[in-house]
Write a structure and sequence with these properties.
It is a single chain. This protein is an alpha+beta fold and 164 residues long. The protein has one domain (31-160): Peptide methionine sulfoxide reductase (Metal Binding Protein, Guanine Nucleotide Exchange Factor, Chain A, Beta Complex). Helices cover 23% and strands 24% of the residues. It is built from three helices and nine strands. The protein has helices at residues 4-27, 40-46, 49-55, and strands at 75-79, 85-88, 92-93, 101-102, 110-115, 122-127, 133-138, 148-151, 156-160. The strands form two sheets. Strands 3-4-8-7-6-5 form a six-stranded antiparallel β-sheet, with no helix packed on it. Strands 2-1-9 form a three-stranded antiparallel β-sheet, with no helix packed on it. Strand 1 and strand 2 (85-88) form a beta hairpin. It is globular, with a radius of gyration of 17 Å.
Amino acid sequence: MMSRRTIAKTGFAALLAGLAAPRLATANAPAATFEVTKTPDEWKKILTKEQYRVLREHGTERAGTSPLDKNYAAGMYHCAGCDLPLYSSETKFDSGTGWPSFWKAADGAVGTTVDKSFFMVRTEVHCRRCGGHLGHIFPDGPKPTGDRHCLNGVALKFVPKSTS
């Protein structure tokens, strides 16, 4: 016999799946033209399954799963899709959310769009060169910007600062 909790969880999961369906359909629609463009098959050859899901299908990795969340070494965080430098370690902070967070992107590195999925309006942040989905920007970050760029670690590649 199913408990009320199981029924509630199943119903909630079905509701979320139904809400995500329109978002996925939008994500697969023809997008803006970017400097780096590839077919889905070309992206799948250079990205892992999880990178493809996040960067190309607007997915989200589970909180606390990225080793980049607690990485505070000096360097740059690049787009995992096209290797464009996106965020400096100097703007990284521990937001306590389980995702790598920054208060500012490198100049001209990212673009934003309005994301109206899941009954909310959020600012989606993407790589300006390949259009890869990185995460979202929230207005609860530290000074000087007050922004929190909450990013999927799988969408990033860390490049340590050269010691030479």
